[in-house]
Amino acid sequence: MKFFLSLLLILISIKAFAHQPKLIKYSPSKENPHRVIYPEISKAYYGKLSGEEHYYIINSEKDFLFYAGILSPKVDENYKWLSLDILDEKNNIIYQADGSQHKWNAWYEPYARDWYWKGPEIGGEINQATGFKKSFLIEAGTYKIKVYNNDNIGNYSLAVGEAEFFGSNTFEKILTWTPIIFYIGPYMDIVHWKKFDITAYIPHIMLLALFFLLYIVVKKIFYKKKNYLE
């Protein structure tokens, strides 16, 4: 438990733009979009376009603060651009972020310990502390977020919401961040992004080192106990 608490304190101390991770293992379509719960709470949806656009849906009975941004994993020096459309209930485009016309810059995510290409955003003014746009007030209603590019091929991380919420207590914080630290980051690196980054395995190495130390300590205790009994 001390290991997890120490790791959690390190994460909390990092002043960065971070989102709760959500791994999307299917292709959410226009007819069957992925539902975004609590759209004001920051989330990162890790997905992969495989020939068709991806859709996310927001249903809100009250006005809410909205933000959406797109990232593409930085596997090499050639980025794969992606665009975002925000559709209303009648499927009219009300906001658009054209990735083909955007200047994609390299950006490091300290939580996942990965490099990304930072794409276009839909939001308000720039937050000077983070370099990302702030959320803005949008009317109550049903909205769809469309993720796409020219051939609908490529990996992405879709950020929705700005308000950071990592849990109201230590247990919730551990439940929130354990998946991205031990599973989502390495899984996306190897399975989808086809790369191997040793920094993604720092927590795994630390955990193995902790188990090894515990093994040495327990072994010494039992060894001394055995010699004493003899």
CATH class of the domain at 17-166: Mainly Beta
Q: Judging by the overall fold, what is the CATH architecture of the domain at 17-166? A: Sandwich
**CATH topology term of the domain at 17-166:** Jelly Rolls
Q: Strand arrangement, largest sheet? A: 1-3-13-6-10-9
* Number of DSSP helical runs: 3
Stretches with pLDDT under 50, minimum 5 residues:
1-17
Average pLDDT, all residues: 80
* Series of H and E elements: HEEEEEEEEEEEEEHH
Into which percent range does the helicity of residues fall?
Answer: 25-40%
* Structural class designation: alpha+beta
- Biggest pleated sheet: 6 strands, mixed
Strand coverage percent: 25-35%
Nearest-angstrom radius of gyration? 21 Å
Overall 3D shape: elongated
Number of strands: 13
Instruction: Report how far apart the termini are.
Output: 35 Å
